[in-house]
Write a structure and sequence with these properties.
Blueprint: H1 7-19, H2 22-29, H3 33-47, E1 52-55, E2 58-61, H4 63-89, E3 95-99, H5 101-118, E4 124-128, E5 142-147, E6 154-161, E7 164-168, E8 189-192, H6 199-206, E9 217-220, H7 225-230, E10 236-239, H8 244-248, E11 253-257, E12 265-271, H9 277-289
Protein name: HTH lysR-type domain-containing protein
Keywords: DNA-binding, Transcription, Transcription regulation
Organism: Kiloniella spongiae
């Protein structure tokens, strides 16, 4: 037999910790302010310790309350995922995937027809956006994210390492020397229109270069960036295997490589728990496609 307080008290307390406000928690739970206060009081009596305290017009958890609230938040997320997964498995809904524009343009789209041929019954919704979305809040099944794999609370597996180059037309280098990353400020930049949290953004941040202080930028959709860079409109970032011929033919010059350590690359990120059947099929297909390829 499980020995813990009432679920209603735990739900009320978790909402109060998250909102830092009794009234907001009450509104979420569709109960009165007094009802939430009573639940918190019962919970404190059960533990024999103070879990919250007043601060101005709000409520803040004590150290003990903060620890309990954090663990309850994780637990309710798991319950929420389980309910959604079971509900979704019994209804028709598309497979919802979010990923960076670079990944979808240069790796996924040339291969996606194969998946659709194998699984014509699976509807797919792709969101090509560099912004990191909340898989639970926005109800996505899968994210393909660039980074080191540090996304706690989710299943994370590396799909492929990243091989990416900062390239420029040789015409732009006639009167400019680029010896170190900060010298890139001397050149105009060609950026993906969804630049937030992009591969280049993370590299610039690592080298202490503020993306937003450089104003000589042009923002384009991902599939247009290569032509713009080759035409001499600026320096930009492209997958290395897509520019090797251009470098070999002296149409582009590689200034820096963004190849990181073994942890850096594209990762599959998905919620813990039971996987929907259509997500299982897509993950299996991705792994098979990636056996002899990289970006």
């Amino acid at each position: 037999m499980r020995n813990f307080p009432s679920l209603s008290s735990l739900r009320a307390f978790e909402a109060v910790v998250r909102h830092r406000n009794l009234s907001h928690a009450a509104k979420e739970l569709n109960v009165t302010h007094a009802a939430v206060a009573q639940q918190i009081k019962k919970l404190e009596e059960w533990f024999g310790t103070t879990l919250t305290q007043r601060e101005g017009r709000g409520v803040v958890p004590t150290e003990s309350g903060l620890r309990l609230g954090a663990e309850l938040g994780k637990s309710f997320d798991i319950i929420d995922d389980a309910v959604k997964d079971l509900k979704d498995s019994t209804t028709d809904r598309p497979l919802r995937i979010t990923m960076t524009p670079t990944f979808v343009n240069f790796w996924l789209m040339p291969r996606l027809a194969d998946f659709r041929k194998q699984h014509p019954d699976i509807e797919i919704l792709l969101n090509a956006n560099s912004e990191v979305v909340d898989l639970r809040r926005d109800d996505y099944d899968l994210a393909i994210r660039y980074g080191t794999g540090n996304w706690p609370g989710f299943n994370v597996e590396q799909l492929m390492p990243s091989y990416t180059s900062i390239v420029v037309s040789p015409e732009l280098l006639k009167d400019i020397q680029i010896k170190e990353p900060k010298d890139l400020m001397k050149l105009p930049w060609v950026c993906d229109i969804d630049h937030q949290q992009s591969e280049w953004q993370l590299w610039l941040k690592h080298h202490k270069i503020d993306f937003h202080t450089h104003h000589a930028k042009i923002h384009l959709s991902g599939y247009l960036t290569k032509d713009a860079i080759r035409d001499g409109q600026g320096v930009g970032v492209l997958p290395s295997n897509w520019v090797q011929e251009d470098i070999k033919n002296n149409q582009l010059v590689e200034l820096f490589s963004l190849t990181g350590d073994k942890l850096t690359g594209y990762h599959l990120v998905y919620k813990q728990g039971i996987l929907p059947p259509h997500l299982k099929k897509f993950l299996t297909w991705l792994r098979n496609q990636n056996k002899d390829s990289h970006i």
